Amino acid sequence: MQSHLTQQKKITILGSTGSIGRSALEVIRSFPEYFQVVGLSAYSNIDLLKKQIREFKPQYIAVFDTKHIQDLQHEFKNLTIYSGKEGLKQISSIKVDIVLCAIVGAVGLEPLLTAIESQNDIALANKEPLVMAGRLITQKANAHSVKLIPVDSEHSAIFQCLIGQDINTVEKIYLTASGGPFYNKSIKELEEVTPQEAIKHPTWSMGKKISVDSATLMNKGLEIIEAIWLFGLTEDKVDVVIHPQSIIHGLVEFSDGNMLAHLGPTDMKLPILFSFTYPERVFRPLKRINIKELSNLSFDYPDENKFPCLKLARTVAKKGGLQPTVLNASNEVAVQSFCEGKIRFTDIYRIVEKTLEENSYTNCNDCNLEIILSIDQEVRKKSIEIIKKLTSR
Ligand code: NAD
Ligand code: MG
Q1: 101, 24 in Cβ contact below 8 A?
Q2: Which of 63, 150, 168, 251 could anchor a disulfide with 155, C-beta 3.0 to 4.6 Å?
Q3: Residue 21 in contact with ligand 1 by CB distance below 6 A
Q4: Model confidence over 274-324: pLDDT tens digits?
């Protein structure tokens, strides 16, 4: 039996101090023989970044603020240090086997495109760029023969079910959702939930933004759009089911009635590991499911009246054009505003809906990066205005 991967892989992690970034480094720590860290990037958690540099010895790092450069260079004499938005692009352009995109939000778009242009394969956790600029990213990846390997657990599940399959035989894919921390609350109770409650996810431990998105179910809406681009499917072929146990991460139904499901422990290290080793697998598990402990796997359709963000995202996915760009930008602004205690949980939907009403770009299928970025900025301003009006009442 083969006991090792055919090649050691060089890896850069964008967002190494975040939830996905830290899990990715745990994966690398478990398999040091297979992976070598070349680059790391962080925003503000410099103490953690320093620990990561000491342990994983990258050659390159990128930090947001130039004020950290001197201190870092003093301790790490041979390290090349980049900074700012430009620095993220510079580190993404270093040739490696895989760039793990694990930054949160639209800010990850430009480094992702740079990594693709530099012919680095992508392990993609950062879903917001795919929502705002899916066509641009997938076209660029095709043009540069770059693989986009999903890290998002549902998409990794579908990706694994689709290996060796003809995409034209796919009748439907099902993305599973735990339902988040508020699934059993009433609409009235949802008005009062706090950011602290929203970020306490029942089955996954994640960054703040995606935790709030999981609580509104906007995350599953973003994931519908993510799946459309990753797998080249139309919106009507992507379904969502509530599966509170988070054991089955995705299912594929084929034209002949056969269905494949992917099961895995509730731990992002597994999809991260697979994104690093694809198309191979390692011969030692990080974790396994005990099949005897599996009972009571339940599935249900989501309540879109209680969680209207999901319905809104689906409508946007259907309309296409730049609607997803608008959805993503306004959602990022609304979620931040909720986390800062400025608006209610249920206002997130109201703000995104209102922003969409006021920005109806539907027929821009070939928009370039400049147009997408300018619309992203315009929409953010609009959403901030809407929030100001709402909160001054
Ligand atoms: P997080 O908030 O824990 O980490 C975000 C990382 O991005 C940090 O390293 C931070 O330093 C960096 N960052 C934030 N703002 C930045 C900026 N302006 N410039 C440069 N770097 C910046 O987020 P996370 O939970 O790890 O999620 C990362 C991405 O992965 C998100 O897009 C999320 O939707 C996706 N994702 C996460 C999970 C999960 O389990 N956490 C699962 C699936 C998908
Ligand atoms: Mg997911």
Answers
A1: no
A2: 150
A3: yes
A4: 999 999 999 999 999 999 889 889 999 999 999 999 999 999 999 999 999
pTM for the full model? 0.97
Which residue matches tokens 């953010």? 380
Check pocket membership of 156 for ligand 1, CB cut-off 6 A.
Answer: no
Ion ligand 2: residues, CB < 5 A? 152-154
Distance of CA 249 to the CA centre of its chain: 15
Residue 248 has phi, psi (to 5 degrees) of: -90, 125
State both tokens at 149. Answer: 């390997």
**83 Cβ inside 6 Å of ligand 1:** no
Query: Phi/psi of residue 242, each to 5°?
Result: -80, 125
Q: Interior CA angle at 166 toward 162 and 172, to 5°?
A: 65
Q: How is residue 382 annotated by DSSP?
A: H
CA of 219 to the centre of ligand 2 (A): 7
Instruction: Tell me, in angstroms, the distance from the centre of ligand 1 to residue 124's CA.
Output: 11
Rounded to an integer, what distance in angstroms lies between the CA atom of residue 238 and that of residue 253? Answer: 10
- Other C-beta atoms within 10 Å of 117: how many? 16
Ligand of minimum distance to the alpha carbon of 180? 2
C-alpha to C-alpha distance for 206 and 178, rounded to whole angstroms: 14
d(Cα 212, Cα 233) in Å, to the nearest integer? 27
